[in-house]
Design goal:
Pseudouridine synthase, 10-stranded mixed sheet, 3 domains, alpha+beta, 288 residues, 4-stranded mixed sheet, 18% helix, 36% strand, Archaeosine Trna-guanine Transglycosylase, Chain: A, domain 4
Length: 288
């Protein structure tokens, strides 16, 4: 059978893990190698970027920033998971809008964020969520993340709908928690949907049902690196690249340090690094 390689965009439903979606893709496509460009919490929905087959070799080159989320924050309650699945830790009166707006300003830009107690972070080989479930939560260190923008969409009683644009590694659950504290209240996340990840948009994603039914559209591997300049090779150069040999080739100017090398049909052969007048293959997709 021909190899199945490519980019797959999936709109994850609530109630399943990202790894469940990976397993669905493996079964539906009949392939073992499926990698993801970032997970979502089980209660969250939205975009999962998957690479299939030999395209999993492109994971280091995936553009995953900024990430954009639609989120709903509930005021007055903080939970141990920072979302609606956890136990109530404390309560407080809902904040004034002016206090929330000031808190958003303080949580914009580079932020030192303590991950949620229930998260996949590891300390000494232990997962934070596993330790928390045993009743022995780990002391997690703050990580530097970037929040590019908050956009308020609607105030609805004790809830706020926002759009958050942020860097990879940002926990929107923790942002909700910290926003509540900074506004002099308490808060947790009740809904989360990933809209975009880098150049990829959930509007182009298939549903999990379509994936199960075999109706998903697998995009070619080249679609996984849309920002890279493209260098088209002749058949002889393609053979050299498959062997890991440097090749010359017309293409982007000297300022381009990296490029996607494609065969005469336009299929991705390799990701290459410029070395003077030559292209050095770093990651080869096409096999002999």
């Amino acid at each position: 059978m021909p190899a199945i390689d490519g980019l797959l965009l999936v709109d994850k439903p609530a109630g399943v893990t990202s790894h469940d979606v990976v397993a669905i893709a493996r079964r539906a496509l009949g392939v073992r190698r499926v990698g993801h460009g970032g997970t979502l919490d089980p209660f969250a929905t939205g975009l999962l970027v998957l690479l299939v087959g030999r395209a999993t070799r492109l994971l280091p080159y995936l553009e995953g920033e900024p990430k954009v989320y639609a989120a709903t924050i509930r005021w007055g309650v903080e939970t141990d998971t920072d979302d609606g699945t956890g136990a109530v830790m404390c309560t407080a009166p809902a904040p004034e809008r002016a206090a929330v707006e000031r808190a958003m300003v303080g949580l914009t830009g580079e932020v030192d964020q303590v991950p949620p107690t229930f998260s996949a972070k590891q300390v000494g080989g232990q997962r934070a969520h596993a330790a928390a479930r045993r009743g022995a939560p780990l002391a997690l260190e703050a990580a530097r993340v970037t929040v590019y923008a908050w956009t308020t969409r609607a105030w609805r009683g004790d809830a706020l709908d926002v759009t958050v644009q942020c860097s990879g590694g940002t926990y929107v659950r923790a942002l909700a928690r910290d926003l509540g504290r900074a506004a002099g209240s308490a808060a947790h996340l009740t809904a989360l949907r990933r809209l975009t990840s880098g150049p990829f948009d959930v509007a182009a994603a298939c549903s999990a049902d379509d994936l199960r039914a075999g109706a998903a559209v697998l995009l070619p591997p080249l679609a996984a690196v849309p920002s890279l300049p493209v260098v088209r090779l002749d058949a002889g150069s393609v053979r050299h690249v498959r062997q890991g040999r440097d090749v010359g080739g017309a293409g982007p100017g000297p300022g381009a340090g990296r490029a996607a090398l494609v065969d005469p049909s336009g299929a991705l052969v390799a990701i290459a690094q410029r070395d003077g007048d030559w292209w050095h293959p770093r990651t080869v997709l096409a096999d002999d």
